[in-house]
Amino acid sequence: xxxxxxxxxxxxxxxxxxxSRQWLKAWAKRALTAPTLFSSLTRLAMLGARGAKIExxxxxxxxxxxxxxxxxxxxxxxxxxxxELQLHDRVTIGRNVIINDGARLLSGSHDTASxxxxxxxxxxxxxxxxxxxxxxxxxxxVTIGRGAxxxxxxxxxxxxxxxxxxxxxxxxxxxxxxxxxxxxxxxxHLAIIEAWLGRCNxxxxxxxxxxAA
Length: 213
Known about the structure:
The chain has a single domain, classed as Hexapeptide repeat proteins (UDP N-Acetylglucosamine Acyltransferase, domain 1), CATH 2.160.10.10. The chain is about 20% helix and about 25% strand. The protein has helices spanning about 1-10, 20-50, 190-195, and strands spanning about 55, 60, 65, 70-75, 80, 85, 90-95, 100, 105, 110, 120, 125, 130, 135-140, 145, 150, 155, 165, 170-175. It has a seven-stranded mixed β-sheet with strand order 2-5-8-13-16-18-19. It has a five-stranded parallel β-sheet with strand order 1-4-7-12-15, with helices on one face. A five-stranded parallel β-sheet has the order 3-6-9-14-17, with no helix packed on it. Strand 18 (about 165) and strand 19 (about 170-175) form a beta hairpin. Residues about 200-213 have low confidence and may be disordered.
């Protein structure tokens, strides 16, 4: 997985004219972000070795939790920040999903009516293009629909429909909805990826100069 991700970066790298100012700038960024990129790729390899199913490319921060990584699936193009993943049940993250730092995905809880403090679990699913903002909490059994947004600090105990926006504690749906033709690439907004591929709003032609980099 590590080699596949680096191969993807290399094959799709921005290629300004050799020796140009843009070339120097690109390689300076690559050098500066290399330690962070190496840590990210190492983390992906480690999680994969522990049973997580991750499509490349993806970027995952340092996650806290119970380390049952075999319950975790992450799709291509997704970014998972420094979050808490309580993997008592399946946690499935689709493609081009964003989960910001401080979010908590809790697939297990305890039955308050149980004298034995019985553990109750439920799978969590975040469909493609979902966005879970900073500090949000997703509770067991919840599905966040395609393109849906969970606002910062929201606590979600019920499914969020496709393209809906949920905010607050407990989460409530706003009348605002997202466009259905979502096509952005979350990873292109990260410094470690931008250093190789260029800014996300740059036309592809700008990175296809004739000289090798």
